[in-house]
Amino acid sequence: MIESLKTDLTQWEIGPYDHSLPGPMLLRLRLDGELIVAGEVETGFLHRGLEKALERQLWRSAIPYADRLDPEGALFGELALCLAVEEIAALAVPPRAQSIRVILSELTRISAHMGYIVRVARAVGSETMVHYVLRDREKILDLFELATGARVSLNFLRFGGVQADVTEGFIERVLEICELLRIRLKEYNDLFTYNHAFIKRTRGIGTIAPELARAFGVTGPNARASGISFDVRKEHPYSGYDFLDFEVPVGRRESQHLGDANHRFLLRLQEISTSVEILKQSAEAITSGPFALRKPEESFEVPRGEAYIRIESSRGLLGCHLVSDGGAYPERIQFRPPSLALLSVLPQLVRGIRIEDLPVVLATLDIGVAEADR
Amino acid sequence: MEPNELLQKINKLVPGAILEKQRFGRSAKTCLWVESEKLRELCMALKNDPAIALDWLENLSAMQLEDALVFTYFIRSSRTKERLILRSSVELTSPTERTDFQSLAGVWGMAEPQEREIAELFGIRFLDENGVSMKHTKAAPNHWKGFPLRKSFVFDGDKGTRGGPCR
Q1: Which of B56, B109, B153 sits opposite A344 (nearest CB)?
Q2: Which of A23, A27, A177, A285 could cross-link A14 (Cys pair, CB 3.0–4.6 Å)?
Q3: pLDDT computed for residue A3 by the predictor
């Protein structure tokens, strides 16, 4: 039951551009004093016509566009597109390229989760934590630069492999960063995670009950924090994830605060640990051999057909439905971004919380407005 | 549940709803073409039947094939992990007018944001079970005319050729 302060209801509009929002969006709230009694979300301010733009590119030049699906997890858009094309064209990706893809995917996941920690820390006013995490995230961006030449939009995957072999010393530096992250995670916990002020700001607010998560199709770390054990890397393995030994962290059903903002934060930290484990295994097991089926500059056409691919991005299930008519251009590329479900569930989550908790709920949900609007 | 067993069950639940059974791409997954008038009834039965329990609409994709708009529903059961692909289509009568189609937001809540997007980008008016139009989102600017994801859509200033950025 929602608490009432019995004041006159007021109407607030936050956005479309506000520092507390995860991106351009408009929140229409009705408030009873400090309590939010109803909320509506309007999106579309970041619509770039991405799917239309993809239809107008030659197959090869579609990859950098897929990068822009979610700038924070650029590699996931590329990977989903490449996997879909490879399924239609029945291309078998060489094992070395598979390992490079997994390493870059997990580095992207860690980098995105670090960005998440920064946003949560900022929402609760912990500037020290922001600087500590950004310091470490730079090291991951350095690794991207070493391997691909780019720090954010990598444009590195190719149909049937990757653009180039990894640079000398890259694998050693991946193993070094695994060790560093193990130390840093403990540091984050000591400094922030179990800080009583942080726990008070995040516990019991913005709770996604498992039934709510199912009803709205919430996936990824937010669903797992609600006790739903679903991870595409386990359910529909791709790029060789089935050969790796890792546990997917899931919120404990018996926990009193299952699915709340605090749970969502803790689960991301556990996911970084899991990604470190995957990175270590992939880096140690990487085989020598070709990194692509063909030279990147060779022309390429996709045969007639269609495919639907799922991958686990840092925010959840990212789907890609691809249709080819056998021509030089894609007939249709449609993405199923995980953030769409989060935007749908948001009005339910803000109902009953206090206005000062809104930035915390928004930050802990990790909504990618760019991928939702496309 | 085996595809044939599922098909028999569906035919019993909603007779005449399935038009054709296909394989989806290279995968072994079954894709069923559904009579558009019976789509909502069928989806409701697939969701509520305890043996099938397809309770999660994972994705809704739309694409234009010649003069028809084809909707592809990727659905799954969170209990049995069974997956199914449903397809239905509607003929696009006019390049400038919206075309009516059944909304499935009353069956799966997740359909709503995806339908709203398709409504604007493909020019579809989704109708609920009472025939009332669902609320449409506004992704494009106010002066925008036409439905950008339709094949007939041409951007201002170009001849509809591919290979360039969208303006």
Answers
A1: B109
A2: A27
A3: 61
ipTM: 0.86
User: Is B163's Cβ below 8 Å from some Cβ in A?
Assistant: yes
Q: Is residue A66 part of a domain?
A: yes
CA distance B14 to B136: 30
A12 touches chain B (CB under 8 A): no
Is residue A77, in this structure, part of any structural domain at all?
Answer: yes
* CA gap B136, B125 in Å, rounded: 8
Q: Is residue B19 part of a domain?
A: yes
| Residue B82 belongs to domain spanning | 3-92
Scanning A56-169, the segments in alpha helix (DSSP H) are 62-67, 74-89, 95-123, 127-148
Number of H helices, E strands in chain B: 3, 7
Burial class of residue B5 in the structure, from the number of CB atoms within 10 Å of its CB (0-12 exposed, 13-18 middle, 19+ buried): exposed
| A87 near B CB under 8 A | yes
Is residue A41, in this structure, part of any structural domain at all?
Answer: no
User: Residue B4 above 80 pLDDT?
Assistant: no
> The domain that contains B40 carries what CATH number?
3.30.460.80
Which of A273, A118, A271 has its CA nearest to residue A181?
A273
Whether omega before A16 lies within 30 degrees of 0, making that bond cis, reads: yes
Q: How many domains does chain B have?
A: 1
Q: Which of residues 4-43 of B touch A (CB under 8 A)?
A: 24-27
Average pLDDT over chain A reads 88
Q: Measured between CB atoms, which of B55, B112, B139 is closest to A373? A: B139
Q: Which domain holds residue A292?
A: 50-337
Task: Give a yes or no: residue B43 inside a domain.
Answer: yes
- In a domain? residue B129: no
Query: What pLDDT is attached to residue B167?
Result: 39
> Is A329 part of the contact surface with chain B (CB cutoff 8 Å)?
yes
Contact of A50 with A64, CB cutoff 8 Å: no
B32 vs B28, more confident: B32
Q: Which residues from chain A sit within 8 angstroms of residue B68, using beta carbons?
A: none
| Interface touch A319/B58, C-beta < 8 Å | yes
CA closest to B112 among chain A residues = A344
pLDDT tens, position by position, B63-116: 998 889 999 999 998 888 888 899 999 988 887 788 889 899 889 888 888 898
Q: Is B165 domain-assigned?
A: no
Give the position of tokens 């044939």: B4
| Interchain contact A216–B (C-beta under 8 A) | yes
Question: Is any Cβ of chain B less than 8 angstroms from the Cβ of A215?
Answer: yes
User: CATH code at A153?
Assistant: 1.10.645.10
A341–B61: do the CB atoms touch at under 8 Å?
A: no
Question: Cβ–Cβ of B114/A340 closer than 8 Å?
Answer: yes
Q: Look at residue A212 and tell me if it is in a domain.
A: yes
Which is more confidently placed, B73 or B140?
A: B73
Confidence of residue A85 (pLDDT cuts 50, 70, 90): very high
- Say what the pTM is: 0.88
Average pLDDT value for residue range A193-215: 87
Q: What digits encode the pLDDT tens for the residues A318-372?
A: 999 999 988 888 889 999 999 999 998 999 999 988 999 999 999 999 999 999 9
User: How does strand A332-336 pair with strand B18-23?
Assistant: unpaired
